[in-house]
Amino acid sequence: MTTTISGELTRPGLGGGFRDLRQSSFLLKLLVRKELKVRYRGSVLGLLWSYVKPAVQFIVFYVALGVFLGLERSARNPDGLSNYAVYLFSGIVLINFFSEALGNSARSIVNNGNLIKKIYLPRELFPVASVWVSAVHFFPQLVVLVIGCVVAGWHPDAFQLLAAVGGFAIVGFLATGLGLLFGAANVYFRDSENLVDMLLMVATWASPVMYSWTMVESKLGPGFFALYQANPITVGVELFHYAFWYPTTDGSAAMPPNLFSLWLPVGMVISLVVLALGQLTFRRLEGRFAQEL
Amino acid sequence: MANAIEVSNVSKEFVLRHTRSIKEAVVWLVKGRKGDLSKKFHALKDVSLMVETGETVALLGLNGSGKSTLLKHISGVMLPDSGSVYTRGRVAGLIEVGAGFHPDLSGRDNVYLNGAILGMTEKQINERFDAIVEFSEIGEFIDTEVKFYSSGMYLRLAFSVAVHTDPEVFLIDEILAVGDEPFQRKCIAKIQELAGHGKTLVVVSHDLDLVSRICARGVYLEHGNVLFDGPIDEAVARLRA
User: Fold this and answer.
1) Nearest C-alpha neighbor of B224 from the set B52, B96, B41
2) Neighboring chain B residues of A120 at a CB cutoff of 8 Å
3) Count of CB atoms situated within 10 Å of the CB of B123
4) Which of A135, A278, B48, B233 could pair with A181 as two cysteines, CB 3.0-4.6 Å apart?
5) Other C-beta atoms within 10 Å of B201: how many?
């Protein structure tokens, strides 16, 4: 809502994009708080579900992939990844953040259709609030991850911590941009949310969360590996590995080449371009939300 | 006096799309493209409306005449296909009260959430919170979840929040059927008080006796056209004729 002085005439209904978010930061805060309150209402475990779900997911993957499929390094399996549990979990928390953020923001406009049809407010608030809520849910998982890292002998330097912030930002921007895009498209075609579910399933496996990037490089060759690396989620996951897993190992594991000189900027640029495209599409489509919902 | 609302030559067309699945489209193609896949519907045809600051205007007409669509254009929920809409100052709508309420939140949380949705700042809500609760007569139930409210309590609280947003332009869409007789009288008194303070009111209602008490000017719409624009008594007489 624009806070104009009562002296000038304004056109109602024309949003200012992300500029509106600053003016409605109070509303954004309340929407986030509402989501957090409502999420686990009526459940006995409450917020504990935010720990239980990733914990179970982690155990399943660890046993199936680390133990059965032999990704964990052990005396009988010297080619495996050392501290595979930390490796796995640092990727999972980031993918979980991305999945929840994109899945919820893609549905946010349709779910809040009742409100959007009746009252004008900056509609970007809904996808952005969804991403924000996911970031809040990401936090307890991060705490668990850090505890796990410390147990495994984590000794990060400042640069490695910065890398984690960078990875989180890349994935956050990407989720917001795609959330705006698919959230707006979902108003017109409900295929959008199904497409998102499919994308999320692919995203989990299209970045080195479960496996190591070296396996991809040896199978794909340099050309396709560059394509694989250009996925911002891949860059985000690798940055998380660099920040959380790498400092728990003896340092003999190889990081993907040019991670900082090339792929970090590439991932960031792609994420920001997606964000800009998402915002642009959203603004073009939002004028007709009220009549299409 | 300056205009609070300027609606100039606004037209709005709705596409009534029956379906957009591939299956239906293929059937339509196979059948030799008989009929239209989508139907169009003119909700507003070249409507112009100037409202001065402090005026009280009633939009009258039968169902489907375009009253609510016009109101949605003034509030900014919808954008016109052609023509332009301008408003001066903050516009707040009582368009179906309680749209922003969440049943699982307490009355208190809902007051803040709905107040912010209607454009109030944190400070404004803090200042007016007691007045809102007092007006709504909710009392001790303010910390109860809204889903346990009776429908009357729910509407009273929603109306109370909306009426305390203090906008320059107030849009009211068929909400005066809220609550029991005494509360309804209280609402009308409040709306008349707002009008007395120089607020601009635009009211949509089928209760003709009520609007003739609140509003001075009546705009009679039919099928998206303005048929009459003038004193409320004449507009009501035309609609009744």
Assistant:
1) B41
2) 75-77, 93
3) 9
4) A278
5) 23
